[in-house]
Design a protein that fits this description.
The structure holds two protein chains of two kinds. By secondary structure, chain A is mainly α. The longest helix of chain A has 51 residues, at 548-598. Chain B is α+β, with helices and mostly antiparallel strands. In chain B, the strands form two sheets. Chain B has a six-stranded mixed beta sheet with strand order 7-11-10-9-6-8. In chain B, strands 1-2-3-4-5 form a five-stranded antiparallel beta sheet. In chain B, 55% of the residues are buried. Classes of the chains: A mainly alpha, B alpha+beta.
Chain lengths: 967, 190
């Protein structure tokens, strides 16, 4: 696992390791000012002896003698429990009883009980402290009860004894209190989001504290503690810069660029790792990385060393006058390797630097090797180009490469450069050259030597020359900048060392000398050299004025030079590309030209391989042309490629054929075949089959219902727990949805829905039968009890016969309709002679069957033996309601019985409804209303009657008068 | 998860009795706000018992967890606590996130006492910085730091009025659970 200081968890782990010599708690987070008095101690959370009191571990001890408690011991003036016998006894005893009752093992004696409690609870306490979650079965309430018991026993005494309760004020806030601190949890359930931040803040402090101590330990020499990271990085950079030149040199000497590159690549990991290690700035990590370096660099370095040792003799002649120095350098490198390890710490580096220039370069060589690739990103175009040139198979001068690498390292940054500048002169030997300068010296002559060999290489070397002066320019500029007041002193190590002025001076000189030597030793013609010389002069010029203006001037010039360089490089690249293109075309053309002769015109099967073999020596385009020329019996490779593309298209997953609906669609498609006209795409995709969705829905609803039921149950339980009728508001939210779901759509196919059907079928049936029954019942004549009847006395018979038959009948009319029998009874006395069939001459019933009526259709008017009718004279005044009565009275009217009686026997008329045709009764009736104009008979009779009546009246009146008179 | 073999228990809903016991405990801390946990407007949440632990889990996660066999399932949703072998419910610190926002009675403790509390100790009056008024004795309280960071659960050992009178060394809040357990009992918290 990689250590990442930016991750807090890593830091936490580190802290955990160092628990043994942990920093005091008070220094970690909160430092509360205060003296040694107990109150401030408490405030700091330092509870010394009393601290143990609140711990659960000792919770059982209160049940023992209170004197045993450390808390009690800590308070000498505490009033013993005996002083408050009643209260304390109650407080102590009652909970104990309770607890012991709950505990499984109850001993006989009370003291044993207490002991038992103590043992168990204390055990429980310890387990809780150790690992209470896993196997802790004790209930918190019991613990609390124990605590309460103890508290009460302790608390009561302390209340009375201690009167400093006012010393510790605390706020009492309302239920809806919110502090000014942004509340994390009160509003939302977000929880610990901010808490984490808070924690991290603490961790920061801890880390900072830790770092501080580390640094104090590690960098005792460093007087300035403010920017340790800066220092380290700067030191590292300096190292890198210095080393880059050396290492590259060693690699170049191998003359196997590929190997060198590989070594570099392998070293790259180590480089980045070491870099991160430096930035971390942890001693621990440094130690770790030291090991890493040892492992990773040895491989590369061994290679280098082996290569360099071999190459040194060869290179000597090449390098010309500088051979001696290079050899010595190379010899030094092994020693430097061993020393490389302790060099990581800044102080070590400083020490190493002070030790000697040769050692430094040797020491830092491996390191540089690893780190150098990291700075490739900073390279300009020119340097890139230079690198490209390294890779070229054409042999290049080692010198140019060296210079190139030098440039790379120099371009890293002015800060690092200044560091580099500062360090070598620290030795005090201005005459001595830095490795870079030395290499320059060594390399500058080289181009001269190699130039005759190859035009191309010289061109490149010229380029490099152009760059190298700029690098020297850099160097010359940096001292200037270091002298400027604006320059950050912390970046330069020299500023910290006591010999600042000297260093800079020396540095100036070295820079100048370096340039001078470079200039002098390179009598190379060309503009590059000219430019370099020009720039050198400029650099020297700028060196002396030491002003901001000049510096900026130099800067601009340099920029200009860089731009020029870039432009040149771009031109070069363009040219090269053109050449390559030309070459390609040329080759292709040549192949085309050559082929007609070489190639067999006829097709030979399997000749592809042959032609390929033939074309093997040629280049890619040629091969292609061969393939093309070989004809197209089989798909050429090109076609195959395109075909494969097509295939890949063909075999891509078509989303419309996914899923169940897609299957349907696929079937359909296969039915149509591959006809383009009937290509099924997503437009034909039906929406997911209903059944599937229904299934899913059913499942869902079932689950939901289950959950809802559960929730309801939970709510019920909650209500019972809270003893409140909550839910009204809460239910409202859930109920509407529930209700909506519960709306039942009547489905007649479902059997359980029969309950929702109204049982309407039975009722109509019943009612029909009932109705019939009712009707029948209604039709059926009510049962008449035989007991109830009118028994007419025999003597009444005579009375009726003589006097009032009519009055009798009128009284009985309501019943006569229904009660035939009675009527018969009634009428019989009046007409004993007549048969039962003609009771009152006419019977009427709605319920009588028609047949019956039909039978007696013959209406026979029979003379009713009316005898002497009392009211004969005024029948019309008898305004009876019943028609029948009228008829009866008509019949009974004794005025014209004689003519009717005569006609009666002959008259047999069919009845129409109640009356027969030409019923006399109707005529009689009409006669009653209107007799006609010419009916004199009646008038005559009336006149006669009125006369007789008048006579009677007078006579009676006279009689009465006569009777009154005598009285 | 501890290396111990746990009894193979399938996840199941709580019985009514279990629900009651648990609700009684939770209601000590959040009172009628319990309703907000049971009937949430933002989705269906339910309680599930798994390995004697009660998990508060959303319907969504519940469905996802159904894909995992019971013996392989270590945890789901948020653990609210566990049932002891005597069938009492013990609240775990993991429930704090859900209970703290709804807490009815709160206790704030001074910075100096925070550490003590987070080591599993009770809160003394000297460490008491603030307390909700009308807190009665043995009321479940949520313990906060003065910076309003929820630190754990406790039970008020004294009512608010009593707290004024007692000795500074008297316990005012009994420790129940604290966030230090995330470190101290890392292996048993799920």
């Amino acid at each position: 696992m990689k250590y990442d200081p930016s991750k807090y968890c890593h830091n936490l782990k580190k802290i955990a390791e160092d628990v043994t010599h942990a920093t005091p708690v008070s220094s970690l987070t909160w430092e509360l000012e205060g003296g040694d008095d107990p109150m401030s101690k408490k405030r700091r959370g330092d509870f010394c002896a009393v601290h143990s009191t609140p711990q659960k571990k000792i919770k059982g001890q209160k049940n023992q003698a209170s004197a045993a408690s450390p808390a009690v011991r800590a308070r000498p003036h505490m009033v013993p429990g005996s002083l408050h016998p009643t209260q304390q006894e109650v407080a102590r005893e009652a909970p104990c009883e309770r607890i012991t009752a709950q505990l499984p093992r109850v001993s006989a004696s009370h003291s044993q009980k207490l002991n038992n409690v103590f043992v168990q609870t204390s055990g429980m306490g310890t387990t809780r402290h150790r690992n209470h979650r896993s196997d802790d079965d004790t209930d918190s309430e019991e613990e609390i009860r124990l605590l309460i018991a103890r508290e009460e026993s302790l608390g009561k005494t302390t209340w009375s004894s201690v009167g400093d309760s006012a010393n510790e004020p605390f706020e009492v806030v309302g239920g809806d209190f919110r502090s000014g601190v942004p509340k994390l949890c009160s509003v939302t359930a977000a929880g610990m989001g901010n808490d984490c931040d808070y924690d991290s803040g603490d961790t920061d402090e801890i880390i900072a504290a830790k770092k501080k101590t580390d640094k104090v330990k590690n960098s005792a020499e460093f007087s300035q503690m403010e920017k340790p990271a800066h220092k380290k990085t700067s030191a590292k950079n300096r190292k890198n810069c210095e080393l880059s030149g050396n290492c590259v040199k060693a690699q170049k000497r191998k003359t196997n660029p590929e190997r060198a590159i590989g070594a570099r690549v392998t070293a790259q990991c180590a480089g980045s790792a070491s870099e991160s290690a430096e930035s971390a700035g942890d001693e621990e990590y440094d130690a770790m990385m030291r090991n890493c370096l040892r492992v990773q660099l040895t491989l590369a370095d061994l290679e280098q060393l082996a290569g360099s040792n071999l190459q040194v003799p060869e290179e000597d002649p090449e390098s010309g006058g500088d051979g001696q120095e290079t050899t010595t350098k190379c010899d030094r490198t092994p020693g430097g390797l061993h020393r490389a390890r302790p060099c990581i710490c800044p102080e070590d580096i400083v020490a190493a630097l002070l030790e000697g220039e040769e050692n430094t370069c040797g020491k830092q060589k491996p390191k540089e090797d690893s780190i150098k690739p990291k700075f490739q990103a900073f390279k300009g175009v020119g340097s890139l180009y230079g690198k490209e040139s390294i890779k070229k198979p054409l042999k290049e001068s080692v010198a140019s490469d060296n210079i190139n690498e030098d440039q790379d390292s120099l371009k890293v940054g002015p800060g690092s450069m200044s560091m580099e500048k500062g360090s070598p002169p620290a030795n005090g030997s201005s005459s001595k050259l830095t490795p870079l300068q030395r290499t320059k010296k060594a390399n500058n002559p080289n181009p001269n030597q190699t130039q005759p060999q190859k035009r191309h290489s010289t061109f490149q070397s010229q380029d490099h020359k152009m760059v190298s002066p700029s690098s020297s320019e850099d160097r010359s500029r940096n001292p200037v900048s270091s002298l400027l007041p604006l320059k950050d002193k912390s970046l330069s190590l020299g500023a910290k060392t006591p010999k600042v002025g000297v260093d800079e001076d020396c540095h100036h000189r070295t820079g100048e000398t370096g340039e001078g030597s470079g200039q002098s030793s390179s009598p190379m013609p060309g503009k590059a050299l000219e430019g370099s010389s020009r720039r050198d002069t400029q650099g020297s010029n700028t060196n002396f004025p030491l002003s901001v203006n000049s510096w900026s001037d130099v800067r601009a010039k340099e920029k200009h030079a860089e731009d020029n360089q870039k432009r040149l490089a771009a031109l070069e690249a363009k040219q090269k590309a053109k050449e390559v293109r030309k070459k390609l075309v040329h080759n292709a053309l040549a192949d085309l030209d050559g082929h007609p002769e070489d190639k067999p015109t006829h097709i030979i099967f399997g000749s592809d391989s042959e032609t390929e073999e033939q074309s093997h020596p040629g280049e890619e385009p040629m091969k292609e042309s061969v393939n093309r020329a070989s004809g197209r019996l089989f798909d050429s490779s090109e076609d195959e490629e395109s075909g494969s593309e097509d295939d890949s298209h063909r075999f891509t997953i078509k989303p419309q054929f996914e899923g169940r609906a897609g299957q349907k669609l696929l079937d359909l498609q296969s039915h149509f075949g591959t006809d383009d006209r009937f290509r099924m795409d997503s437009r034909f995709l039906e929406s997911d089959s209903e059944e599937e969705q229904e299934e899913v829905n059913d499942e869902k609803t079932a689950e939901e219902e289950e959950l809802a039921a559960e929730k309801l149950k939970a709510l019920d339980v909650m209500q019972s727990v809270l003893h409140t009728t909550v839910g009204n508001s809460a239910h409202k939210g859930s109920l509407p949805a529930k209700k909506f779901r519960d709306v039942i759509h009547y489905d007649p196919t479902r059997h359980d829905h029969a309950t929702y059907e109204r049982k309407s079928d039975d009722k109509p049936k019943e009612s029909k039968a009932k109705r019939r029954k009712k009707r029948e019942e209604a039709e059926k004549l009510p049962e008449v009890s035989k007991e109830m009847y009118y028994s007419v006395a025999a003597d009444l018979k005579e009375i009726f016969q003589t006097t009032k038959v009519t009055s009798e009948t009128t009284d009985d009319t309501p019943s006569s309709e229904n009660h035939d029998g009675e009527k018969v009874d009634i009428h019989h006395p009046a007409t004993p002679t007549t048969g039962a069939e003609e009771p009152g001459g006419f019977t009427f019933s709605f319920f009588d069957s028609d047949a019956k009526e039909e039978k007696e259709d013959a209406y026979r008017a029979e003379p009713v033996k009316t005898g002497k009718v009392v009211w004969q004279g005024a029948p019309r005044f008898q305004d009876s309601s019943s028609e029948e009565e009228d008829v009866a009275e008509e019949e009974t009217e004794g005025r014209k019985p004689s003519p009717r009686e005569a006609s009666l026997p002959e008259k047999e008329t069919t009845r129409f409804f109640f009356f027969s045709k030409n019923d006399e009764r109707l005529h009689v009736g009409s006669d009653l209303f209107w007799r006609g104009v010419g009916n004199n008979i009646s008038r005559n009779s009336w006149e006669a009657r009125t006369n007789s009546l008048r006579m009677d009246c007078r006579k009676k009146h006279k009689d009465a008068k006569r009777r009154v008179k005598p009285k | 998860p501890s290396g111990k073999m746990r009894p193979l228990t399938e996840m199941r809903p709580l019985t009514e009795e279990e629900t009651r016991v648990m609700f009684e405990k939770i209601a000590k801390y959040i009172g009628e706000n319990l309703q907000l946990l049971v009937d949430r407007p933002d989705g269906a949440y339910c309680f599930r018992l798994h390995n004697d632990r009660v998990y508060y889990v959303s319907e969504k996660i519940l469905k996802l967890a159904a894909n995992i066999s019971g013996d392989k399932l270590v945890s789901l949703g948020t653990c609210f606590g566990k049932f002891t072998k005597t069938h009492k419910f013990r609240l775990h610190i993991t429930a704090l996130d859900y209970l703290a926002p709804y807490a009815k009675y709160k206790v704030w403790i001074k910075p100096g006492a925070e550490q003590s509390f987070l080591y599993g100790n009770h809160v003394l009056k000297s460490g008491l910085g603030r307390i909700t008024e009308n807190t009665c004795q043995y009321q479940g309280v949520v313990v906060y730091s003065m910076a309003d960071v929820p630190l754990g659960f406790g039970v008020a050992a004294k009512s608010t009025q009593d707290c004024r009178k007692v000795d500074p060394m008297a316990i005012v809040v009994f420790h129940q659970a604290d966030i230090g357990e995330y470190v101290r009992h890392e292996e048993t918290l799920t």
